[in-house]
């Protein structure tokens, strides 16, 4: 019998399998999709000019040691996020203004001060240790910033943060969840920054999925069962048996589940998960976190002095960035079509979605005709993916972060849980997935080495 079966070949599952294998355990990975990587998916352009990152893309070399170690180990080339140029703020369909990238938008003094106050509040909160209080967990992020005295434009800006960070409206997550996320991820400013101090600093030239593919090679392709969605897990006490939808049965001494907790309800656990675990995981939601990637021959926005970074209070695209690689590859603008507007956009047909994105870019980039001359356009709706059901990571229901802190992510019998959502560092990121995978494997290694004394 195998020592360990891992469900899911995203970053957390692959890391768990790799760490367990390094410790000498026999391991199998069972993955629903026909590929590894989960929410990391680097898709080649039809013109073979590089790839589009439909899922995670950005990393940081100094703040995210695990992902960076792999980048170096596998010899993966990275590209720095471009900082030069003018940013754009779209306040309504026909109102836009330009401002130097990296500084506050040109609002009134009162609004700018108010934005600074709210931003500084979250930064200070995110540097404090521990879990936020149950009281803060009972408030939505929106209600919380209103209590802090946020002005209307700042309330909208907080909603942009919420959409871009979690694919949700600020009315859909608790203030405690938001603050806890910042605490685990090196602070609010580190999450938001595009330079060497933040999470959007570097991208992989040949796609982040390279890490998953390389990890899969080391684990051994014969140990990874692709296109095998797991349907049930039977914990017999002495061992676990997992059963796939196509009837494959894999027994192992331990199981690591790396599927996002929002999806646990789709599995048959026997015996059922404890009521508290069911309540907290059933209560989690996954955001509407979508990308539209518009690829061009030339970085026309750069010659106009634009950075490629923009944010919008109107229209379905909330935020965009320049995600070009180099002249041998392609130039691109990646648009995040998140939160409630992304939810509506995702219901449209592909040509309608494309039209809306291009028309909004046309308005944002001051009606530059080049907008309408892309070489390729991608869009990716993670809510439509049967084996993801949204992104970035499951968000707790109001009050649940503090109420269920002692059970969330804890092993149940022979089943251990990993995933970026459980990470104490860089939760919601690739780094967090690797960190959680490592810890989950260690738990299993510790359990299997433990030989109870015979009385
Ligand atoms: C649009 C987008 C942008 C992002 N941007 C960034 C970024 O810039 N930087 C960054 O670090 N992170 C980013 N992320 C987040 C990052 O992708 C995730 O945090 C990370 O990939 C999560 O890894 P995971 O292993 O926890 O989960 P997942 O990747 O979701 O892995 C779970 C695995 O389980 C499999 N599975 C599901 N159901 C079953 C089943 N029934 N049987 C077997 N297998 C199953 C899935 O197919 C998947 O492979 C982004 C994500 C998205 C979607």
Salient structural properties:
15 helices, Guanine Nucleotide Dissociation Inhibitor, domain 1, alpha/beta, 455 residues, binds flavin-adenine dinucleotide, eight-stranded mixed β-sheet, 3 domains, Polyamine Oxidase, Chain A, domain 2
Short characterization:
By secondary structure, the chain is an alpha/beta fold.
What does it look like?
- By secondary structure, this protein is α/β, with parallel strands linked by helices.
- It folds into three domains: 2-37 and 208-284 and 396-448, FAD/NAD(P)-binding domain (3-Layer(bba) Sandwich); 42-83 and 199-207 and 287-384, Alpha-Beta Complex (Polyamine Oxidase, Chain A, domain 2), CATH 3.90.660.10; 106-192, Guanine Nucleotide Dissociation Inhibitor, domain 1 (Orthogonal Bundle), CATH 1.10.405.10.
- The chain contains 15 helices and 22 strands.
- Strands 1, 2, 10, 11, 12, 13, 14 and 22 form an eight-stranded mixed β-sheet that branches. A seven-stranded mixed β-sheet has the order 8-7-17-18-19-16-20.
- Strand 12 (240-244) and strand 13 (249-257) form a beta hairpin.
- The radius of gyration is 22 Å and the shape is globular.
- The model has no long low-confidence stretch (mean pLDDT 96).
- The structure holds flavin-adenine dinucleotide.
- Flavin-adenine dinucleotide (FAD) is lined by residues 7-13, 30-33, 38-40, 55-59, 229-230, 258-260, 263, 289, 291, 382, 387-388, 391-393, 419-420, 428-433.
| CATH-level-4 superfamily name of the largest domain | FAD/NAD(P)-binding domain
CATH architecture of the largest domain: 3-Layer(bba) Sandwich
Number of helices: 15
The CATH topology of the largest domain is given as: FAD/NAD(P)-binding domain
**Percentage of residues assigned to helices:** 25-40%
Mean pLDDT: 96
Shape: globular
